[in-house]
Specification:
mainly alpha; 61% helix; 0% strand
């Protein structure tokens, strides 16, 4: 799920944690 979002937004944790 974290592919481009992580690259564009530095909120990997935000995406992973939901």
């Amino acid at each position: 799920m974290v592919s481009w979002y992580c690259l564009i937004e530095i909120s990997c944790d935000n995406v992973v944690a939901g």
